[in-house]
Amino acid sequence: MEKSEVLLEVKDLKTYFYTDDGVVKAVDGMSYTIHKGEVLGLVGESGCGKSVSAMSILGLIDVPGKIVGGEIIFKGENLVGKTPEQLRKIRGAEISMIFQEPMSALNPVFTIGDQIMEAILIHQDVSEEEAKNKTIELLGLVGIPEPERRFNQYPHELSGGMRQRVMIAMAMSCNPDLLISDEATTALDVTIQAQILELMKDLQKRTGMAVLFITHDLALVAEMANSVYVAYTGKIVESGDVVSIFRRPRHPYTYGLLSSIPNLVSEKTKTPLPAIEGMVPNPYHMPLGCHFNPRCPFATERCRKEMPELAEIENNHFVRCFHPVLVNESEVVS
Amino acid sequence: MAIDITTSEETLTGRIETYWSIVGKRLRKHKLAMLSLVVLILVIAICIVGPFISPYKFSELGSIEEVLQPPSLRHWLGTDELGRDVLTRLFYGGRVSLLVGFSSVFSALIVGIIIGAYAGYYGGVLDTILMRFTDIMFSIPVLPLLIVLASVIPGAGVWKIVLVIAIFGWMTDARIVRGMFLSLRENEYVEAAKAVGVSNSRIIWRHILPNSLAPIIVSATLGVGGNIIYEAALSYLGFGVMPPTPSWGNMLQNAQYAMAIAPWLVWSPGLAMFITVLAFNYLGDGLRDAMDPRLYR
Amino acid sequence: MKKLLEINNLVKHFPVVGGVFSRPIGWVRAVDDISFHIFEGETFGLVGESGSGKTTAGKTIIKLIEPTKGQIIFNGIDITKFGENKIRPLRREMQIIFQDPYGSLNPRMPIGEIIKEPLMVHNIGDKKEQEERVVEIMKLVGLRPEYLRRYPHEFSGGQRQRIGIARAVVLNPKFIVADEPVSALDASIQAQVLNLLLELQQKLALTYLLVAHNLAVVRHVSDRIGVMYLGKLVEVAETKELFKNPLHPYTQALLSAIPIPDPEIKKERILLQGDIPSPINPPSGCRFRTRCRYAKDICKESEPPLVDVGSGHYVACHFVKEGKVVEYSK
């Protein structure tokens, strides 16, 4: 695929948390690039730094957290070091975000219409009348039936799926160039999740915005993303386009995750899944060398001493591993 | 570090971290609370040891020249209208006041925990009955009734005061405990205990109570200070600990007659009480922070 | 095969209280007349979305929740009306694993105590034997026995779930309700816990009722699956049959909604309209009709019964007869 213009480039980002018990390197040298109109899937388990990196982009890192290194280049400008005021202008206007729990992001004492209108009025130079019309249009756009009536409803009157639609409407209100979706469908039922995913796909196609799609669910990445970054303990361990990641995973972690998830086609039900042993290391006691080495079946002496670099192993497919897995394509997801 | 694959989920640190060790660690960072704790330990130690070192007895009357003497080398805090050494009486009165404070809180706590636990755990009719009773107790004007009770219950001992304060002191504890039980009984570990077949009484005492201790301890800590004041108020009105047994309360009461000519009689018990109660309050605050429920993950 | 558990017309309604006098002003029909059975040694998967009543069903079956109506026959004994004291000895036979590995362990109890408590409550063995049993079980579920004096907060989600599993199997039960046992865990840990459940089933001859929303997980471990929607069972079938030949329109939509971890399969989705209705005021007739693309007048008027359409495949839909869809058309 011909890559279009770069929209956002996260370069060697380091976001650390200074707690009483020590330093947590939540994001430790993460880099990724989002092109215009692209859906980038950032996938990993809890503690891999995927959400912290998104919060860093939006400048929402609070004490005891701090961005201690790296650059976040959005449309040619470095966001690291910008004042909160400058970031606030970008946030909501050019970059929007939707979260897992829409209830915590919505104010319970205002109607959803008022809240979306407010977002529009802050960032756009329009009259109240225009803002209201735009809000109703947006509510319709995100598939909320009877938008005029819903305009006057409070968040608690809506179901989880409807709230997430409201959040998306709010996020779309200023035609952002980048939408960050942080586990936005995780709390929803499968049939509702399917609705929201279709909506996001549809909006993305229609507006051409780029999406940073953060999730723990590999299946969602396969469905939504063009390119995939796999994160583990604050670092990217593998990246590439979606087909090569799912067909030819090279990092033992990616490979292990893909083969350990139960799927809907495998004939080997009721048999042990090829699980990854052990667990994500304690953030205060990271292992020496490759952070995955204690759980890796292929780990050698070298892996226990040295952290491998992210290296291009085939065209545009990067792996942080001394001993990349060689996979028979039919083996994965079978 | 070698990883044993069979039981490979392994990153625990060496020391066993109990809830209380974490609370202790956090409390140690709370400077005011730690200072208060030190002050309280000192106060308690002095009150216990003091009477043994003092050359005087608390009831020992002085000669006529020694009546109402200001602080001097012989009597560090002066003497009272009967020539008794104020410092010695302060030690002994502290013993009594602290004893009253602790025992009344303890007794009230037992009543409050039992009533609150059963009301909160079982809910329904039992809850309604117990809580209406609590409400009624709350709506009784305490001070006049305390006075009546203090004069009705026979005897003049310290224990009578403890009893009187406890009878009117358990309601707050009962409400706190009930509230804790109401929310904690919905926890999955309670359901898990039921699924295993654990009896209700074991669930109440072994599962829920240990988890509701934090607010109880805070309330008890603040309560000790509060009840010391209560005792003082009762004594001041002449219904508290009866002379010649000294308490900080009746020492203050005594002092009022001679306030103009012997202000030291007011200063020493007043200040002792003030410092002690303040320390209990700061310690309670510190404990509240250290035992914040967000503490356990 | 022997039926270990038989559920007949089970109903659980929760009152919705309101008003000044806390009187019931409505009922949540969490479980509304479901019937099925579980064979000895099998895993029966109960799937459904939030509000389907699957968790309530699981907890009612082992009498953690009192049933409103119906019959629960466990191992030949009708336990529906058993009071607390009569059910207690039966707790040795039936256990539960909870979803939340954080909330289901008492934070003030060392894990050794947590695992030992069932033995103490049922007076099994002396103190020493109990301690030996705890060590044995900890090894069995993959926990280091050295950790028995430690508290739950020191463990990760996966380890805590192992502790919960140890508590459930320490009494050597016949039957375990596993209520969303892996949904709170990270992807790489889910497989470990599923493997443990499978291994324990073999070693201890367990029968499982697996309550879950993740169909892939349910498919991997279940022999038979029941699909619930708004308090009703809409379809029951053997696992392979259900995935090959889903007959109920809801099951079809549910299966098609599952995202597949393969970027090159672009499947056609049946997108359901709208949200799940409230279980306080469920639709008349077939409860799924408000979201069903095939719904006709009859669906509004009468409730379709769950009928056997051949070889143990049960469906509750007016348009499915003799194992075939007779009338699905728009």
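Residues 1-94+177-278+308-334 of chain A form a domain with the Rossmann fold fold (CATH 3.40.50.300).
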